Each structure stands twice: as structure tokens, then as C-alpha cells.
């Protein structure tokens, strides 16, 4: 039986999106492969070695720094990348299949080099495109002297991989845009939504909406990471525009992230009584919070085309919620929404356009809203369920 080795900074039992996807893919491969995983334990409270449902997990313990700023995060990322590469160098054997994700983003290309030297197969899964993600996040400038160096460090050895998995056609376009990247052997395998734990339910029976006493409002849900690239500034600007003329519309944030405090301060500074920041809830309660709305909202910063694909989109579909997307109008998500009539699209960064999209949703009849909800759930089950996507990974590994 061939060895299938997963390499990721995060893995079971972490509840981060990358960890959940990697662990679930691994679990479905244990009948066909000898499955192993190498990851990092930042909390130092997990066993170094663990057999989890026939997945042999080896964790590298790294002490968590008490100080948490950008510089410390960079140092920690470099250190964890170095340790993962060292561990990979020891563990990778001839004819192994190595599945590595861009978390941390520095290691996949170097893992591909190690695999080539050791005559193992390498598959890279690109969750986010670097260094472009750093530019959008404001970490480096488009004109930075270091950009070509970073491009080489992040993607210089991708061409050595047997396959590069991207999460959408937009990402495939971006990842192939560089000189070195044009000959990559890419394949699109999208993320999935949890169609078992998440399913449509009535907003009038929702525990969150009832506890807040807002079942009579038109509730727009923003679930998941509240970070810099999530376009929260556009959402807040649209809330300011809608506040006086449409008090029946309410924005509900469920999640956390680097921009969470900024959102809270905006709510206070501008007396935004149409915005509620509910905070983070455990994954076990996602069916409750994903159904705490009439429609869901997905926003990204301008120029995020192909750099990252938000996994929340698929769980919005699982809950059967129409999706309002403030994204690049040519993006795959925008096209998917419009082609399948499951929501509305506005241009990323345009608050007034987002307001117009929200008002279109508000003016839908209850029957039309129901049809959109049914179409969203149906689309997930046809194209983006766990069984459909994991089967694509299984075929990939078997044919590598």
C-alpha cells in the first residue's frame, strides 16, 4: 500500500478551514493508502504522535509567543516552515505521494524540490496565491524591490510538482500568469460545503435571531473571518447608507479576525444600530448561525481576483441561503451566482452597488426568495458536496 503524506501547518483537531479540508480528505483515503500527516502544534497540548482513525499524525511542538504582532508572526511562520521542511526531508520516501498545502506558504515549492530529489510524487494545493496575497493585505508594495525574490521563494519550484491543485478557474489564471508558472500541471478542484451538518432551516426558529429579537428584520449574515481582505469596509459603508432609509435591514457579523475591533469601533462611532457583531461561535453551531439570516453576504477587497477563494461561499449554499457577493464581477463566484440565479452581485469595493444589490434582495417576493434558496442548496448537492469533491481527490491520488 502506497504512503500518502499530508503536510500542513494545521491539521486535526484544529477547526480552521484548511485543517478541516485536509483532515476530511485524509480520512477518506485510509482504505486505499497508508495515510500520514505532519503538522504544527502551537498550543503544546496535543500528543506528538497520534493515530487518528488510521491517520498517523506527527506534530511539531512550537511554543506560542506571548507577544502577537506582525513581526513575531513572520518569525514564527519562518520557524515553523523550517521545521516542517526538516521533518519532510526525514519522512519523505521514494514513491510516496506527498500532498502539501500553502499553509505555511513558503514550503510547497521546496517540498516539491525534496520530492523530486527523493523520487516521490508531489501534489500542491493552493489555498491562497503568494506573494499576491501579501500585496492585497498591504504587507508589501507592488513596486517593492523584494517582490521578484518573494515570487521565486513562494512559487519558483512549483513547476517541479506533479500536480498543482487550485480552488477555481480564476486562481488557475493567476497562478499561471508568471513566466515560471506557465507550464504548471494544474487541476481545478473546488472546496465543498458541509451538506450533512448544515441544512436549511427557518429563520423564525433560529436561536440567535430569537435571542436578539430580530426575526422581524431583513437579516444579512456575514459569517467567518473578519479580516482585511474580506471587504468589511465596503460592508460598513453600505450599512451607513442604509441606516436611516431602511431600518428594517440588519447586518449580522458572526466570526472574528484582524478587522473585528475596527468593525466594533465603527458601530460605536457612527451609532450603527443596523449592525450587530455577534462574535465567534464554535463550528458545532454552524448550522444555527448559517441559518440566522434571510440572505448571506460575501465581500472581498478590490483586486482579489483569483488570489483566494472564500470557503464560506459553499456553506452558505449548504444552508440554502441566497448569496449577495461584493466581488470582482468577472470572478467565478460572480458568474456562478448569476448563472444559477442564487443571489446578486456587486463590484468589489463599491458600497453603493452593494446597497443596490441588497435592495434587490429585499424587494424579492417570499416565493422568489424561496426559489433562490432551493436553487442554492440544489447547486451544492450537485457540484460542491463533500462526496463529489473528495471523490475528485481520490481519483487524483490514484492516478498520480
TrEMBL record:
Gene3D superfamilies: Glycogen Phosphorylase B. It comes from the Bacteria. Residues 216-377 form the Glycosyl transferase family domain. One of its GO terms (molecular function) is glycosyltransferase activity. It holds the Pfam family Glycos_transf_1. This is Glycosyl transferase family 1 domain-containing protein.
Amino acid at each position: 500500500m502506497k504512503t500518502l503524506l499530508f503536510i500542513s501547518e494545521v491539521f486535526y483537531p484544529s477547526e480552521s478551514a484548511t485543517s478541516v479540508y485536509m483532515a476530511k480528505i485524509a480520512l477518506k483515503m485510509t482504505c486505499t493508502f497508508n495515510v500520514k500527516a505532519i503538522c504544527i502544534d502551537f498550543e503544546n497540548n496535543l500528543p506528538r504522535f497520534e493515530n487518528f482513525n488510521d491517520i498517523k499524525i506527527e506534530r511539531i511542538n512550537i511554543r506560542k509567543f506571548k507577544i502577537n504582532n506582525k513581526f513575531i508572526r513572520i518569525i514564527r511562520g519562518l520557524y515553523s516552515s523550517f521545521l516542517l521542511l526538516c521533518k519532510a526531508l526525514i519522512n519523505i520516501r521514494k514513491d510516496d505521494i506527498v500532498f502539501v498545502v500553502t499553509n505555511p506558504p513558503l514550503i510547497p515549492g521546496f517540498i516539491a524540490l525534496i520530492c523530486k530529489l527523493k523520487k516521490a510524487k508531489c501534489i500542491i494545493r493552493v489555498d491562497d496565491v503568494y506573494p499576491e496575497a501579501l500585496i492585497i493585505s498591504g504587507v508589501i508594495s507592488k513596486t517593492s524591490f523584494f517582490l521578484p525574490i518573494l515570487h521565486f521563494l513562494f512559487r519558483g519550484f512549483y513547476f517541479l510538482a506533479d500536480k498543482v491543485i487550485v480552488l477555481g478557474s480564476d486562481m488557475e489564471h493567476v497562478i499561471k500568469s508568471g513566466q515560471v508558472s506557465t507550464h504548471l500541471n494544474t487541476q481545478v478542484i473546488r472546496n465543498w460545503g458541509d451538506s450533512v451538518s448544515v441544512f436549511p432551516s427557518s429563520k423564525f426558529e433560529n436561536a440567535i435571531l430569537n435571542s436578539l429579537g430580530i426575526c422581524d428584520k431583513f437579516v444579512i449574515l456575514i459569517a467567518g473571518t473578519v479580516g482585511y481582505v474580506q471587504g468589511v469596509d465596503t460592508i460598513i459603508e453600505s450599512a451607513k447608507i442604509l441606516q436611516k432609509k431602511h431600518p428594517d435591514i440588519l447586518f449580522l457579523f458572526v466570526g472574528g479576525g484582524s478587522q473585528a475591533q475596527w468593525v466594533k469601533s465603527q458601530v460605536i462611532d457612527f451609532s450603527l444600530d443596523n449592525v450587530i457583531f455577534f462574535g465567534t461561535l464554535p463550528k458545532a453551531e454552524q448550522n444555527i448561525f448559517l441559518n440566522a439570516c434571510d440572505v448571506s453576504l460575501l465581500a472581498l477587497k478590490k483586486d482579489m481576483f483569483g488570489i483566494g477563494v472564500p470557503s464560506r461561499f459553499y456553506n452558505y449554499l449548504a444552508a440554502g441561503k441566497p448569496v449577495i457577493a461584493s466581488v470582482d464581477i468577472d470572478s467565478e463566484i460572480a458568474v456562478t451566482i448569476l448563472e444559477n440565479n442564487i443571489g446578486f452581485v456587486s463590484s468589489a469595493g463599491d458600497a453603493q452597488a452593494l446597497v443596490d444589490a441588497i435592495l434587490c434582495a429585499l424587494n424579492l417576493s417570499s416565493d422568489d426568495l424561496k426559489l433562490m434558496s432551493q436553487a442554492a442548496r440544489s447547486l451544492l448537492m450537485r457540484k460542491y458536496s463533500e462526496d463529489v469533491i473528495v471523490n475528485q481527490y481520490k481519483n487524483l491520488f490514484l492516478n498520480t
